[in-house]
């Protein structure tokens, strides 16, 4: 081998040969070692062979843990080794079974063995002597025939052979290099098999590879596809060698940069922001999504900013005010400060980097990292069962009899969006997290919150894979919170069941009691059969108690004397009224920090995160945990008071005296209540995973290994019976289940279920527990027999399997099997997931001013001119004012009949003829008096002409009074046009208002104001007229005079909701734009927050106002919507209970209920709000909407049929909102509004077909 220089390198094999040349050995070795280091950090995609993304903390940990003994040159993983690793399996498979092709050839074959002949065979026979076939064949025992043989000479095998020849050549170069000589050369067996295969005669017959494009086999066959992709890399080896040689300084700078960063990261005081890390294989580059920054928290010093950059082979590091630069020259690497002073200098080369890194650390930090020696976590090698507690910040692992380990594994994942790519980030080793719009963070809060999200599923699979890699495929017990919805952990169960031999969920309440049983406190406790234990726990949104009853088994007393024969019976969890985990976190942190961690970390996790995990905001600001936060968290937890009555009620339900009740808390959010006896509060006896010792020590002594039993929560759906939706229970009052893994337990169901005809499939929502909390799951029935031609009554077979992916199995079997359209259908348990678009109610048509001239409401056939109608009403108001003020308005006059002669007509009635100076003779008859008195001379009357043209007196009253009928004629005539025209924000300031109409309206407003607020004449105004004039002015909303606004403000300030205020205020509010309207709304919302009648009336007011102005509800802020909904739920619950207890409800009670339902319908329109926090309240995942849905369904079940009957029969009971909807016949007894609310609240697609045709106002 001739001497070479780096510039002479032409083939990849030259790199190996250079290792034996002392002049250029250093350059070659550096290239190989840098590539080995880089490949060791990468995980390669098995399909594309490209490096997968990683995360910063994992990369730094790998670098730090890999700084051990230097590898021998023969063991380095270079570019060629990487190719062989990825193609090794495929090559061996092809060597054993290569693809072949059939080849047709012509050969002389004995006549008896001839199978195929063709035209060429016939031609040969024709040239043989003889007159026929017998004579032609008689001369020879063989004829020319077609023979089929197999051949390896295919396009894909040509490439494969070409590939192996190059691989063999590189292997031989490694063998010839003395520096790479090893006792057992790398891939020695593979080389032997390759050489043996190439030596075969049929292989030698394979032709040369000349094609540039691959065929289908090379693109689709799983083994040849690997060869093709590896060939693409192999043929670039020569080119990449030149690239590596050219970029040697750049690659060395990359190595130095990451070695320094990894070394600094080993300091516990150093916090680096977690982020995705990307690998550029050909360039040997490692990049991050954003610039690397960190904080250093040295003892006794304020936090210092850490910045490290790599730019054009220049490494710059800054810690606080210290600034260093690492400059690379032709022979050295110099460390200089910000002034340019050289602080250290090292020979340039791979082997000098470790010393350089130590020196940089000394100059910056001043001491070695304490955690440098513990960079790896020893995997478990035992095969004993293990118990695991999954956590966002810790994963605790326990093997019986061994010490509990805190594994370097967290259920904490991020997904970063960068350049249209979504990069997963494992945060198990993270010291700082950046939370922002471009980083979606997944924690245990999502895992335990029944979410079905693709990112969550990826996180679960990734976590379980890491856990399996850590502990192996041994039997596993994993702890789960008791409040967890068993139907919502299918993905977790499936992943664990696939990864481990025997994965069993264990409720944390049971784990805590098993742990307590091994302690001294249990030994001293006088425990009796039936004693009740309340285990307290907290989710992100709620506080729970889990009732667990002690059951003493006499047969266990002798076998388990230390356990006192006790096994536990767990009951479903119940919500408590205390503060939830997230509410306490909000009280503990400042607004900025809470907004960052909201929904991610629980109260207990925040407690653990202090000092371990730093938080960085979306804009890059470091949000430090407050000082003495742990003490503050402890104090806040003490304020989380428990209500004794809730525990008393549950103990009475279990028929247990309260002195036999004990409590234990699994969370820091709850401390011992003052009202509980000290001995009844149990302290935790250690980590929950330590219950593994108790389980393994005692499980062999109990029947079937059962240390506890479980009462399944109620499981129900909704089905239609007699036109109304009602509850149907799948699980209710079921005996306790023995949790035996894989054992199917049958659950008896006596009630039959009816499948209605005409449906292509059936999808039923599921409700879990006594609270009927709506889950995100449903059961779906599908069959080729659907749709059914008739309603089919079905028997149900239900079973439960503890620990299964899906614990419940439900089968529908026709009751009458003889003529059944199907034999049996098994229900599929589905997850609803997030619906892309959830419908919200539309607002009815808004009419313009010109529409009122020819208005039709769709009920009356003939259109009406509402503006003309109102002009006549305006004139009436002005006429009333003129009469009240002067006693004469031209239509009603006041006269004195003294001196007029009275006479008796032929019917015996008294009459007279009065001479009026303006009208002449007026005929006055006794029958036209409201209260006839011949001696009452001062009278007022309406003057009208008779059929003969004479003037007659009508509606005769005492002087100055209005007739009784005018009080009612006025109210019945003006309301409809006023309510219709002054609606949806229409007012007199609109440009399209006709001028004549505006003038008459202003005159009427002035007249009404004078009548109501004139002290001289107000006493003469009848109460009914006064009330109607007030109502008239309120209909005007923004056009209402200031005198009336002041009166409304004064009335609402009094808080009197029994008068006329509830009838006036809904119309006066308008669009709540004017200052006085805002003042009214502010006071009204205060009344809403009350309880009782005032709150109910206030909600009715909001209900009416919400359907008179399209923008009305969109003026509400989050802090206003939440108390409105809370009050609405309470009011609906009261109406539900009140109507249930009353024998016969009055129409006013039904109307009040309808107003509440109409308000709810209006509020659902806030799904379209531009404010995310407001629209989020009305999402299907909202707790509030779940509570509202529950009460609406209860109202429909209890009162739907009665309300529907009232709406059909009683004119006094009316729904203001009118619908156009396609309601099925099966829901015939369900009122339209309840049917519509059901669709909107549950996100049913049928809601898209609902149209709100109009709103009928009837003040």
Helix content: 25-40%
Major sheet strand order = 4-7-8-9-10-11-12
Radius of gyration: 44 Å
Give the DSSP E fraction (strand runs of 2 or more residues).
15-25%
- Please give the domain count: 7
Mean pLDDT: 87
Major sheet summary line:
7 strands, antiparallel
Number of helices: 39
Find the structural class using helix and strand composition.
alpha+beta
| Poorly predicted residue ranges | 372-377
Q: How far apart are the termini?
A: 108 Å
Mass-distribution shape: elongated
Number of strands: 48
Q: How would you describe this protein?
A:
- This protein is an alpha+beta fold and 1259 residues long.
- The chain has 7 domains: 6-98 and 155-243, no CATH class; 101-151, no CATH class; 248-373, no CATH class; 386-581 and 638-703, no CATH class; 582-637; 712-831, Substrate Binding Domain Of DNAk, Chain A, domain 1 (Sandwich), CATH 2.60.34; 1042-1255.
- The protein has 39 helices and 48 strands.
- The strands form 11 sheets. A 7-stranded antiparallel beta sheet has the order 4-7-8-9-10-11-12, covered by helices on one side.
- Helix 27 packs parallel to helix 29 and helix 31 (1042-1054) packs parallel to helix 33.
- The longest helix is centred in the C-terminal third of the chain and has 27 residues, at 1183-1209.
- Mean pLDDT is 87; it is low at 372-377.
């Amino acid at each position: 081998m001739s001497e070479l220089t780096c510039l002479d390198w032409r083939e990849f094999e030259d790199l190996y040969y250079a290792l034996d040349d002392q002049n250029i050995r250093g350059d070659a070795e550096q290239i190989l070692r840098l590539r080995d280091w880089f490949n060791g950090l990468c995980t390669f995609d098995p399909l594309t062979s490209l490096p997968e993304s990683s995360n910063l903390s994992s990369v730094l940990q790998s670098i730090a843990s890999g700084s051990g003994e230097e590898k021998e040159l023969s063991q380095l993983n270079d570019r060629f080794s990487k190719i062989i690793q990825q193609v090794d399996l495929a090559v061996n498979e092809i060597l054993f079974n290569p693809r072949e092709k059939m080849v047709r050839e012509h050969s002389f074959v004995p006549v008896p063995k001839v199978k195929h002949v063709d035209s060429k065979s016939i031609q040969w026979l024709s040239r043989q002597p003889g007159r026929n076939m017998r004579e032609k064949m008689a001369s020879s025992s063989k004829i020319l025939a077609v023979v089929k043989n197999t051949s390896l000479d295919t396009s894909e095998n040509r490439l494969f052979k070409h590939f192996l020849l190059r691989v063999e050549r590189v292997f031989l170069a490694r063998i010839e290099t003395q520096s790479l000589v090893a006792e057992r050369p790398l891939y020695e067996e593979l080389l032997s098999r390759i050489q043996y295969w190439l030596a075969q005669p049929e292989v030698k017959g394979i032709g040369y590879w000349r094609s540039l494009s691959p065929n289908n086999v090379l693109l689709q066959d799983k083994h040849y596809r690997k060869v093709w992709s590896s060939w693409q890399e192999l043929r670039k080896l020569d080119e990449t060698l030149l690239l590596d040689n050219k970029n040697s300084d750049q690659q060395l700078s990359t190595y130095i940069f990451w070695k320094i960063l990894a070394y600094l990261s080993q300091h516990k005081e150093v916090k680096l922001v977690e982020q995705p890390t990307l690998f550029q294989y050909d360039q040997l580059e490692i990049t991050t999504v954003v610039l690397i920054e960190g904080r250093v928290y040295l003892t006794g010093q304020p936090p210092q900013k850490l910045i490290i950059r790599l730019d054009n082979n220049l490494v710059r590091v800054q810690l606080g005010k210290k600034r260093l630069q690492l400059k690379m020259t032709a022979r050295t690497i110099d460390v200089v400060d910000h002034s340019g002073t050289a602080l250290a200098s090292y020979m340039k080369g791979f082997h000098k980097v470790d010393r350089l890194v130590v020196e940089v650390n000394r100059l910056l930090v001043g001491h070695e990292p304490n955690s440098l020696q513990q960079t790896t976590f020893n995997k478990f090698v035992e095969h004993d069962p293990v118990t695991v507690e999954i956590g966002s910040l810790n994963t605790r692992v326990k093997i019986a009899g061994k010490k509990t380990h805190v594994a370097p594994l967290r259920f904490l994942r991020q997904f970063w969006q960068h350049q249209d790519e979504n990069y997963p980030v494992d945060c198990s080793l993270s010291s700082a997290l950046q939370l922002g719009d471009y980083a979606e963070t997944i924690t245990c809060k999502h895992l335990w919150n029944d979410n079905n999200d693709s990112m969550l599923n990826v996180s679960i699979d990734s976590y379980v894979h890491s856990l399996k890699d850590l502990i192996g495929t041994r039997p596993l017990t994993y702890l789960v919170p008791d409040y967890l919805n068993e139907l919502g952990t299918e993905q977790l169960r499936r992943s664990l069941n696939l990864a481990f031999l025997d994965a069993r969920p264990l409720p944390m309440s049971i784990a805590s009691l098993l742990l307590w049983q091994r302690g001294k406190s249990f030994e001293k406790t006088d425990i009796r059969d039936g004693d009740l234990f309340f285990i307290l726990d907290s989710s992100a949104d709620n506080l729970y108690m889990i009732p667990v009853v002690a059951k003493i088994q006499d047969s266990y007393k002798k076998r388990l004397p230390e356990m006192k024969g006790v096994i536990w019976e767990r009951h479903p969890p119940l919500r408590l009224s205390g503060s939830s985990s997230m509410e306490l976190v909000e009280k503990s942190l400042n607004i900025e920090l809470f907004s960052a961690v909201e929904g991610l970390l629980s109260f207990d996790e925040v407690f653990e995160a202090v000092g371990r995990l730093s938080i960085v905001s979306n804009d890059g600001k470091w949000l430090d945990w407050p000082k003495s936060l742990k003490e503050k968290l402890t104090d806040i937890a003490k304020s989380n008071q428990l209500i004794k009555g809730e525990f008393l009620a549950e103990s009475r339900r279990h028929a247990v005296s309260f002195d036999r009740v004990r409590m234990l808390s699994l969370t820091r959010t709850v401390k011992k209540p003052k009202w509980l006896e000290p001995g009844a509060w149990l302290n935790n006896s250690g980590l929950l995973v330590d219950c593994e010792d108790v389980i393994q020590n005692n499980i062999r002594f109990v029947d079937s290994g059962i240390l506890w039993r479980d009462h399944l929560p109620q499981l129900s759906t909704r089905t239609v019976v007699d036109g109304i939706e009602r509850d149907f229970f799948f699980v209710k009052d079921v005996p306790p289940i023995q949790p035996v893994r894989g054992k199917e337990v049958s659950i008896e169901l006596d009630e039959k279920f009816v499948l209605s005809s005409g449906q292509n499939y059936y999808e039923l929502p599921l409700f879990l527990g006594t609270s009927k909390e709506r889950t995100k799951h449903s059961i779906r029935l599908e069959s080729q027999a659907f749709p059914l031609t008739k309603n089919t009554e079905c028997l149900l077979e239900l079973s439960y399997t503890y620990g299964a992916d899906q614990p419940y199995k439900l089968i529908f079997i026709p009751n009458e099997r003889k003529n059944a359209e199907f034999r049996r259908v098994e229900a599929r348990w589905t997850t609803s997931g997030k619906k892309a678009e959830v419908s919200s109610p539309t607002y009815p048509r808004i009419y313009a001013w010109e529409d009122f001239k020819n208005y039709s409401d769709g009920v009356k056939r003939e259109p009406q001119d509402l503006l003309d109608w109102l002009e006549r009403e305006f004139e009436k108001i002005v006429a009333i004012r003129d009469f009240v003020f002067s006693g004469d308005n031209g239509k009603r006059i006041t006269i004195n009949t003294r001196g007029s002669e009275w006479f008796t007509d032929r019917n015996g009635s008294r009459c007279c003829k009065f001479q009026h100076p303006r009208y002449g003779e007026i005929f006055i008859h006794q029958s036209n008096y409201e209260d006839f008195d011949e001696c009452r001379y001062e009278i007022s009357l309406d003057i009208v002409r008779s059929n003969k043209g004479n003037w007659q007196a009508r509606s005769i009253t005492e002087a100055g009074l209005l007739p009784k009928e005018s009080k009612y004629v006025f109210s019945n005539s003006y309301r409809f046009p006023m309510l219709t025209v002054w609606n949806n924000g229409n007012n007199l300031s609109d440009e399209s208002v006709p001028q004549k109409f505006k003038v008459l309206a202003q005159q009427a407003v002035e007249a009404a104001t004078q009548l109501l607020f004139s002290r001289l004449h107000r006493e003469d105004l009848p109460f009914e007229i006064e009330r109607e004039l007030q109502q008239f002015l309120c209909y005007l909303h923004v056009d209402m005079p200031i005198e009336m606004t002041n009166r409304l403000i004064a009335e609402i300030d009094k808080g009197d909701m029994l008068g006329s205020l509830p009838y006036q205020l809904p119309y006066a509010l308008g669009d709540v734009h004017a200052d006085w309207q805002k003042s009214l709304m502010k006071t009204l919302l205060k009344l809403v927050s009350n309880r009782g009648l005032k709150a109910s009336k206030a909600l009715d007011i909001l209900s009416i106002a919400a359907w008179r102005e399209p923008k009305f509800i969109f003026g509400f802020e989050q802090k206003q919507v939440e108390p409105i909904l809370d009050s609405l739920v309470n009011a609906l619950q009261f109406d539900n209970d009140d109507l249930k207890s009353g024998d016969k409800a009055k129409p006013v009670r039904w109307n009040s209920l309808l107003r509440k339902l109409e308000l709810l319908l209006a509020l659902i329109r806030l799904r379209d709000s531009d404010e995310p926090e407001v629209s989020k309240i009305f999402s299907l995942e909202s707790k509030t909407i779940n509570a509202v849905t529950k009460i609406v369904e209860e109202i429909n079940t209890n009162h739907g049929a009665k309300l529907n009957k009232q709406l059909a029969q009683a004119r006094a009971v009316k729904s203001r909102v009118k619908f156009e909807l396609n309601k099925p016949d099966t829901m015939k007894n369900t009122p339209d509004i309840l049917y519509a609310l059901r669709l909107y609240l549950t996100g049913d697609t049928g809601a898209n077909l609902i149209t709100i045709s109009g709103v009928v106002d009837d003040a």
